[in-house]
Write a structure and sequence with these properties.
By secondary structure, this protein is mainly α. It has 23 helices and five strands. A five-stranded antiparallel beta sheet has the order 1-5-4-3-2.
Length: 589
């Protein structure tokens, strides 16, 4: 019996007296590891300053290109989950979990090579493609398992299965911040702008270092305060120092692999037909009131029903509305409130905000999914869409209000609105597997759920694309407006070139909103807090579409149901010599 065969589900069938509560910790552990993807925004600042360290250098990667790494990971999460659905049903959660550990941990190590060589495509390959496949496999492996262990509480079971994914950033965000700070090395400091002679060539700033001209970056007091380890404002040499990202990726890759392997080997599955002691399925009348079927739909037949595509739209719109914000959560918080309330919204506050997103995302998964056992899945999604529309529309209002009147009330309003949004974002993920089990039955829910996660892949593209493209459009407009208000002489003195070179200076990251505000006339309103307003209106519109799709979901027609005598598509495995028969204790249990 080979190592691969030993991972098969026929070798992990538990006896009838097995304590089912031993399974959720393994599921949560794997999801806590892969759920750190939600803290990706922690990596945005160091990766966009990999060469400049304290500020973006011309050759540094842009925020838009870095954000797309997160998007690629989510795309491959959905694709791998869709393709792995049938495989999961055949081989079981342990084999899938081991594969996920190798892909997720290995993806970090490949990305570390990309950071070391400054090859962005390697980070896309490592974290985005390999890591994304690890995300998909690790995500689906516990869902169908826990639904089978907890047929009496489907919503709670899926909430437990997916809760860890939402909470991954709760551990991942502070861990990443701590590692980045521990490995951080400040670049070479030349002095204040008054003490250093610089020239501008092609939009780049150059200064003499050791008898030769070297590229430099210039930071002001506000940027100095946001450094990983605060330092003096002034001129720093590009290509010296370290953001700590390389070492952090290596440490995380090794750590996640070890934890996920231990968790994968803790999986057990119940025998066919197993039910909890003392529990009987609800009567057909009681089940029908919550649109819970007692029949089963084959994984391939599910794709022929309108219910699958309506639920696909329901998940896609709910996820798109939240995923773009999560991808730039730290950046958005800093840009909206960092300029208006700088004494409160500093680097530590923004990092805590990312942590709280994870907390509410995780809690929402368990609370909303458990509540759906009582109010029904369809009514739960009604709550997500109706309440979500109102909350997304409140964010532009808070941003505009804080620009005119910078008081903490608007920050509290924004904070509360986004936290409720993230409970519903997480709750949507946790509730959808139970929704699928209600509509299509439990026999192939793992595979159907995997295929539905292509909606997550789509959302992984739409969300960041919307938020980055709309933000970039707003930013370009803001830079043009601010430049027009600045005295041309002051502009020339500050950047070594005239306003006619604005596009060139912006492309080289020499001109930013913060640097323009430093020389703008007194009383000029900082446009930064309003860069995301258009995006929030678009997200609210998407939720309207999801609301309509959810209203159209109805029970599956009888002709789609599997016949009682229809055999399973995969043959029963032949038990090799020495293997544990189904329904009997395995060695060491």
């Amino acid at each position: 019996m080979g190592i691969t065969a030993s991972l098969h589900k026929r070798h992990i069938v538990a006896h009838d007296d097995f304590n089912r509560w031993k399974v959720p910790p393994a599921s949560i552990a794997i999801h806590l590891c892969i759920g750190s993807v939600y803290a990706w925004s922690i990596f945005n600042p160091p990766l966009t300053r990999q060469l400049g360290v304290v500020a973006g250098a011309p050759e540094d990667w842009s925020l838009g290109s870095v954000v797309w790494i997160f998007s690629v990971a989510i795309v491959f999460l959905g694709l791998s989950a869709a393709f792995a659905g049938k495989w999961l049903e055949e081989v079981g959660p342990r084999m899938v979990g081991v594969t996920a550990a190798a892909l997720w941990g290995g993806g970090f190590l490949v990305s570390a090579v990309g950071i070391s060589t400054h090859q962005l495509w390697l980070i896309y390959l490592g974290y985005g493609v390999l890591g994304g496949c690890g995300l998909g496999l690790g995500y689906v492996s516990p869902v169908s398992t826990l639904i089978r262990w907890f047929p009496d509480r489907r919503g709670m079971a899926t909430g437990m299965a997916i809760m860890g994914f939402g909470g991954g950033a709760m551990i991942g965000a502070p861990l990443k911040e701590w590692l980045l700070k521990m490995f951080y090395v400040a670049p070479q400091y030349l002095g204040t702008t008054d003490a250093v002679s610089m020239v501008t060539e092609g939009g780049r700033r150059l200064a003499e270092v050791g008898g030769a001209m070297h590229e430099v970056v210039v930071i002001g007091a506000a940027e100095a305060a946001r450094m990983a380890v605060p330092g003096p404002e002034g001129v720093y040499v590009v290509g010296t120092g370290s953001t700590g990202a390389l070492e952090t990726f290596i440490a995380l890759g090794i750590g996640y692999f070890v934890v996920m392997m231990i968790a994968a080997f803790s999986y057990r599955v119940p025998r066919e037909g197993w039910l909890p002691k003392g529990w009987t399925p609800p009567a057909e009348d009681a089940a029908s009131k919550k649109m819970i079927t007692r029949k089963h739909v084959h994984i391939d037949q599910a794709l022929k029903t309108p219910q699958f595509y309506l639920l696909w739209i329901v998940l896609c719109t709910n996820v798109t509305a939240g995923i773009g914000v999560i991808g730039v959560a730290k950046t958005m918080m800093t840009e909206i409130f960092g300029t208006t309330l700088p004494l409160i919204v500093n680097g530590a506050f923004a990092a805590t905000y990312v942590l709280m997103i994870s907390v509410f995302n995780m809690c929402g998964r368990f609370i909303w999914a458990s509540a759906s056992d009582y109010i029904g899945r369809k009514n739960t999604y009604y709550c997500f869409f109706v309440l979500g529309i109102a909350l997304y529309l409140s964010i532009p209002y808070s941003a505009q209000a804080v620009s005119a009147d910078p008081v903490v009330t608007w920050l509290i309003m924004f904070y509360a609105a986004t936290m409720i949004i993230f409970t519903m974002y997480g709750g949507g993920f946790a509730t959808i597997p139970a929704y699928l089990a209600d509509v299509f039955g439990t026999k192939y829910v793992g595979g159907i759920h995997g295929r539905l996660l292509t909606a997550w892949s789509t959302a992984g593209v739409l969300g960041p694309l919307a938020i980055t493209s709309l933000r970039e459009s707003s930013l370009a407009s803001a830079l043009r407006d601010l430049s027009a208000k600045v005295d041309p002489a002051r502009f020339q003195a500050a950047f070594g070139a005239g306003v006619d070179k604005l596009d060139e200076l912006v492309a080289a990251k020499t001109v930013t909103v913060a640097k323009l505000m430093a020389i703008a006339p007194e009383g000029t309103v900082d446009p930064t807090p309003n860069l995301y307003n258009t995006t929030m209106y678009a997200m609210a519109g998407l939720l309207v579409i999801g609301l309509i799709a959810n209203a159209l979901v109805s029970p599956v027609k009888a002709h789609h149901h599997m016949k009682d005598e229809e055999p399973a598509p995969s043959p029963s495995p032949v038990r090799p010599a020495g293997a544990t028969p189904a329904g009997h204790p395995a060695a060491g249990e």
